[in-house]
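Students often ask why inverse folding is considered easier than folding. One informal answer: many sequences map to the same fold, so there is more than one right answer. In these notes we will look at a single instance of the problem. The structure comes first.
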């Protein structure tokens, strides 16, 4: 599968800045976004459910009773679908307080709040020693300075968040565990692959979105496993 389609950086910058303004301009009571046929509520400053995570949601497989950690949960869409898919425990974490509020609302709204815990955490900082069968992540795709918490949902200053993720993720996987990792053709695909290899993991492109007419953005999900178990 192709993951390196040329993309106009100027156009991506414009599109992402427009989206950040949209996240900030949501009314205080929030708004509803339809995602894969379900309604999700977002409060101001929360990353909206979007096409970027759909390849991951469609491709991930959660066996009944498995545990899931969703890192950078945003509005909680991936975590909610994991709960609906049969997970016995879902821990959803995000550094953004607005995202925490949105994700908790959506867990209740979709009836998975009995298995889905939402916790404010900078990556794994507040996860403790717990390990999971599945870890999902939709982190910012681009190595670009982020001036605030809203920009951090799309831009990763010095790619520090992604780097820390791969340095630490192995300590939170159960034996035989796996990672579903979202990314995009306008992100840092080669760097993600290198970080995963440096962490002793193997990477396989699992699925990609199909760009629409005159649309150069494409979103991917990678299946990542420790090399010893891959």
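Output (designed amino acids):
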């Amino acid at each position: 599968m192709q993951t390196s389609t040329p993309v106009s950086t100027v156009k991506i910058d414009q599109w992402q800045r427009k989206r950040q303004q949209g996240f900030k301009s949501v009314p205080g009571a929030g708004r509803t976004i339809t995602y894969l046929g379900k309604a999700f509520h977002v409060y101001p400053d929360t990353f909206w459910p979007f096409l970027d995570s759909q390849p991951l949601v469609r491709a991930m497989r959660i066996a009944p009773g498995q545990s899931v950690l969703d890192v950078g949960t945003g509005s909680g869409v991936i975590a909610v679908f994991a709960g609906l898919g049969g997970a016995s425990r879902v821990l959803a974490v995000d550094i953004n307080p607005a995202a925490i509020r949105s994700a908790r609302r959506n867990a209740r709204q979709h009836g998975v709040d009995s298995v889905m815990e939402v916790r404010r955490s900078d990556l794994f900082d507040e996860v403790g020693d717990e390990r999971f069968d599945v870890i999902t992540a939709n982190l910012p795709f681009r190595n670009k300075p982020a001036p605030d918490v809203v920009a951090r949902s799309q831009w990763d200053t010095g790619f520090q968040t992604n780097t820390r993720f791969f340095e630490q993720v192995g300590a939170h996987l159960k034996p035989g565990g796996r990672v579903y990792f979202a990314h995009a053709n306008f992100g840092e695909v080669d760097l993600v692959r290198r970080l995963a290899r440096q962490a002793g993991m193997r990477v396989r492109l699992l699925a990609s979105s199909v760009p629409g007419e005159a649309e150069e953005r494409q979103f991917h999900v990678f299946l990542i496993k420790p090399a010893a178990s891959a």
